[in-house]
Amino acid sequence: MTAGIGKARARANIALAKYWGKSDTQLNLPAVPSISMTLDPLLTETQVELLPELRADVFVLNGEASNPGELTRATQLLDCVRAEAGVRLYARIESRNHFPTASGLASSASGFAALAAAARQACGLAFDARKTSALARQSSASAARSVFGGYVELPAGVAGDATLAATPLSPPEHWALCIVVAVTQEGRKAVGSTDGMTHTKLTSPYYDAWLAAAPKLADEVRAGIAERDLGRVGRAMEQSTLAMHACALAAAPGLLYFQPATLAAFAKVRELRQTRAAEVYATMDAGPHVKALCAASDAAEVSRALAEVPGVLRTILAGPGPGVELL
Ligand code: DP6
């Protein structure tokens, strides 16, 4: 480790029990618990270098200057670290997503987890997974989970609790599951998660019902992971995604993240299950892609079946991976 430089690697994650809605917008605290799997090989590598000659932070993302919104979010994170470490220098951030080409997957979780770890290291703070997770959470709640490997929970936050961090449930080697991503569309999603969940909270008549249902579904997912019971995890996972989307659909105006291919891929997952071709379950986030969860031994069969669905552009396979790594 060189003074003033921090370098870290972190992976994306998929929520098996979904986070949707905040209990504290200022501190970015989730209103419901969420549980995820950290995914290999979808990773981001980030370097933070403190440089005396800089008059502002600089953020280079995938070889190009980041947009102003991304720079603001990165600077806010760096400001927290600088305040804790008593550092006054600006930083040059270089971040690269090593995702399969146009995977259609969000990189904010891996991005902010890697940035949080690299920024703390650059400012001379000792590695502390909990603090790194709480820091990443302030930028994007799902990023708090990517700090840990394997199966991870982010509890619901009580308004005002600035220290909320994710906790690891089981390491990657606990259970060889696979996520098969059916990519259904290129490009960015129409309404991002942050705006989508704010709009849902403000206008959906089903928001309170979602808040009541989500913790019970997280309990089921957590118990299913502990028992390595795919049926238990999968049933609760499908209910969690459908309840989240039902709540968002009922907002005014309604938020519809699905495309025709999303429903076709979802139907294929249920068909594979019903015909006993594979035990597989599906989940969708704030976008049109379908993420199918199955045993690693069924992944090739599930991938083949999903790739044949009209509108599915390609599939990507990912297994449970490690948490954030300092480089
Ligand atoms: C549907 O973590 O992207 O993927 O905290 O506002 O940055 P912010 O939201 P974000 O939301 C993720 C929502 C989700 C479900 C999940 O990952 O739990």
Q: What is the strand tally?
A: 14
Order of helices and strands: EEEEEEHEHHHEEEHHHHEEHEE
CATH-derived topology of the largest domain: Ribosomal Protein S5, domain 2
Pairing-aware structural class of the strands and helices?
alpha+beta
Mean pLDDT, to the nearest integer, reads 96
Structurally, how many domains make up the residues?
A: 2
* Each distinct ligand: ligand DP6
Give the key terms:
9 helices, 2 domains, Ribosomal Protein S5, domain 2, 327 residues, 12-stranded mixed sheet, Alpha-Beta Plaits, alpha+beta, binds ligand DP6
Briefly say what this structure is.
The protein has 327 residues and is of the alpha+beta class. The chain is built from nine helices and 14 strands. The protein has two domains: 5-174, Ribosomal Protein S5, domain 2 (2-Layer Sandwich), CATH 3.30.230.10; 177-320, Alpha-Beta Plaits (2-Layer Sandwich), CATH 3.30.70.
Topology:
Layout lengths: L4 E13 L4 E3 L4 E2 L3 E18 L6 E4 L2 E2 L2 H18 L4 E9 L9 H15 L6 H11 L1 H6 L4 E4 L12 E4 L6 E7 L9 H11 L3 H21 L2 H20 L10 H15 L5 E4 L6 E6 L3 H9 L6 E7 L4 E2 L1
Bound molecules: ligand DP6.
